[in-house]
Amino acid sequence: MKEPTLEYARKLDKGDSLSRFREEFYLKPATIYMDGNSLGLLSKRAERTLLESLLDWKEHGIDGWTKGKHPWFDLSNRLAGLLAPLVGASAEEAIVSGSTTVNLHQLVATFYKPQGKRTKILADELNFPTDIYALKSQLRIHGYDPEEHLIRVKSRDGRVIEEEDIIEAMTDEVALVVLPTVQYRSGQILDMKRLTEEAHKRGILIGFDGCHSVGVIPHAFSEWKVDFAYWCNYKYLNGGPGSVGGLYVNRAHFGANPGLAGWFGSRKDKQFDLEHTFTAAETAGAYQIGTPHVLSMAPLLGSLEIFEEAGIENIRKKSLEINQYFMELIEVELADFGFEIGNPRDNARRGGHVCLEHPEAIRICKSLKENGIIPDFRAPNVIRLAPIALYTSYEDVWNVVRILKEIMVEKQYEKFANEREVVA
Ligand SMILES: Cc1ncc(COP(=O)(O)O)c(C=O)c1O
To answer: 321 alpha carbon to ligand 1 midpoint, in Å?
Structure first.
């Protein structure tokens, strides 16, 4: 931290090579949006492609499947081509389809093959609940008791999971490992390359939930030989609320029969033969199930254009720098107010958000909102704040810290109830 001044923040903005993208987003006046790691903001391009898709429907009716500006029949594949570079996959190894949870069900239904004593699924105790619910229900479908067959690696400090502990838990009873790329609370990046190598050495398949990394850090899923991955497109990728998700399957697994088959997983040229014998696509497209949710995919077309132009390496670079600036400013300005930074500090181990811990986190979040700053709260004590490379300025970050300091000095948070909202 050179200087904790507004002038210095403005100087950093002048040197920001991504600053031109800010005007492409709908930023609310007098509001600083720090929650793009939960739901990204609408861009003008995403709005345009959504409206164009509506127009395709208006003008072409059913023919919109093959006509119009963005024909629907191969839209999932077209989007996969745009998304693939962000996850380090070939276009055939990715598909835009389903939702995070549905895709996890699909991939576990496909790749969890208990045999002999290899019956267990390895996860971790900090993962997002939906992943754990899905894994437990998949175990139940196979007739196994999740209490015994789902192993959750423990965290030593409640924030991060040590790779050593995961590797140690990869015993010969484990059939499948499912982990996050980035922990949703602390923002810890797991070493996907190393974990994949270690799993494979032991004959175990491994998949990752990429919700908190896709669109903010580069990946090399294919090169690392990760077996599968799945993620949402509504966080860093700004695809909109309920945006259709994405999945990746390594080409080594092409031809694996989808656990949950449906006609949109067919080879495209066979789908409308309408035979009762399923001919699966020879790509990750095989793991689609039913008719794609076209209007929930359309914004991604515009949004991914922006990522192509900005470049994921540049996005990661700014994200690291602006988060670093943020953390240093917090340390300088908020040293006396009982905050702790819960995310790892090492660049290789931190994702796209700052995990700010405080015993009064709920009330401080409410106070931030009252002051026009949008954070999110994660129980029990985490304020997540994400400066987003494409639309957050250094001046925004400077203002967030200034306002946070005012809230603490004036104890503004004390007027709020210590209860979380229904949607936190
Ligand atoms: C790590 C992680 N996985 C999954 C989800 C949600 O899954 P879905 O997109 O199916 O609602 C979230 C939502 O915040 C998440 O953080």
So the answer is: 26
Q: Does the beta carbon of 246 sit less than 6 angstroms from any atom of ligand 1? A: no
Q: How far apart are CA 410 and CA 54, in angstroms?
A: 49
Q: Report the distance separating Cα 376 and Cα 398, nearest Å.
A: 18
Residue pair 177/195 in contact by the 8 Å Cβ criterion: yes
Whether the pTM exceeds 0.90: the reply is: yes
Q: Which long-range contacts (CB under 8 A, 24 or more apart) does 51-55 make?
A: 52/298, 53/294, 53/295, 53/298, 53/301, 54/295, 54/298
210 CA distance to ligand 1 middle (Å): 9
Give residue for tokens 């423990």. 154
Instruction: Say how many Å lie between the CA of residue 232 and the centre of ligand 1.
Output: 7
Q: How many CB atoms lie within 10 A of CB 267?
A: 15
The rounded distance, in Å, linking the Cα atoms of 118 and 103 is 23
100 lines ligand 1 (CB under 6 A): yes
326 by DSSP, 3-state: which? helix
51: phi then psi, degrees, rounded to nearest 5: -65, -35
The residue contributing the CA closest to ligand 1 atom 9 is 100
For residue 307, the surrounding DSSP H or E stretch is helix 298-310
pLDDT in tens, 316-363: 999 999 999 999 999 999 999 999 999 999 999 999 999 999 999 999
> Quick one: which H or E segment has residue 55?
helix 44-60
C-beta separation of 44 from 26 below 8 A: yes
Written as one letter, the residue type at 23 is: E
Closest-CA residue to 423 (of 355, 372, 376): 376
What is the DSSP secondary structure assignment for residue 274, as one 8-state letter? -
Task: Say what percent of the chain tops pLDDT 70.
Answer: 100
224-246 pLDDT tens trace: 999 999 999 999 999 999 999 99
Query: How far is 21 from 17, CA to CA, in rounded Å?
Result: 9
| pLDDT band, residue 1 (cuts 50/70/90) | low
What average pLDDT is seen over the chain? 97
Quote the CA–CA distance of 322 and 312 in Å, as a whole number. 15
Sign of the four-CA dihedral 91, 234, 186, 121:
negative
CA–CA separation, 282 and 115 (whole Å): 26
Query: Residue 318, exposed/middle/buried by CB under 10 A (0-12, 13-18, 19+)?
Result: buried
303 alpha carbon to ligand 1 midpoint, in Å? 20
In the block, tokens 């192993």 appear at 151
**From CA 306, how far away is CA 311, in angstroms rounded?**
8
